[in-house]
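Look at one record.

>
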Amino acid sequence: MLTLRIIRVEIGWRNVVDAQLIASHNWDCPLMPQSKNPTKDREIVPEAPADQTPLFYRQIAALDAGRCAGKSLKTTIGFDFARNTNVVMLNAAEFEQAARTYPIVFASTPNPAALAILGLRQAENLFVDADGAWRPSTYIPAYVRRYPFIFHRSADGQQFTLCIDEAAGALEDGSERPLFVDDGPSEIAKGALEFCAAYQRDNEATREFVKELAKNQLLVPNQAQVTLPGGENLALAGFELIDRAKFDALPSFVLTDWRRRGWLGLAYAHFISLGSFADLVERAGKRQVLM
């Protein structure tokens, strides 16, 4: 397996499969918030998959030299896997780029997270077309780009094992882009490990920011009432926004601390991103016409 120990900042490579790895469901990111009543009033909310694995992932296994023998990573698998979700997790490091395209919202419980809204209807991503391609010239969230790889976190939180979703269809017979070479990790496997490590660091920083928002009682439940050009009414609910009045009233010492941490820019990116709701309404209206 491909593992990374946080304490020593070392990368270790092993070629065994931990039978308990999948059973623990201890992943590098919290599960998506789940709706208590997703169909009432056509509410569209972030939901956890029924099997309680992270969004998109169905058959997670540790990356292993034996299991990957004779296999090559496909150049692309497209984005069909993301077609049926209208929200994904977003890390703070992505706010500036993502704010130009997606509304950025928050979920403070049960797991603090920032979220990018991708569509107004449940199970509809407005940025994936019929061919499984992401809309050109728009930022693709790191959570999406990371797939089919993911970290599994050990019980003590100090070791992360690189895993892959075997149901993704990302591997094919061949040796053009192997994950292991001579029982050691290839440059592709090392790149996947580094990407997941960076994602993990950013995710922890994002959770800290959202926890601080909640601590200062800045997050308020919200919903978006939308009427499409064709007359269809939608309600997007189950998320939180930063209360602008409370944010503007923060004490100067808090603002100074947040400026030092880089959090003020995150809050302003969130405010700016809310203007993207209008673009989602336009996209949803156009798709409605084509349906």
In short: The mean pLDDT is 83. The chain has one domain: 2-290. DSSP finds seven helices and 15 strands in the chain.
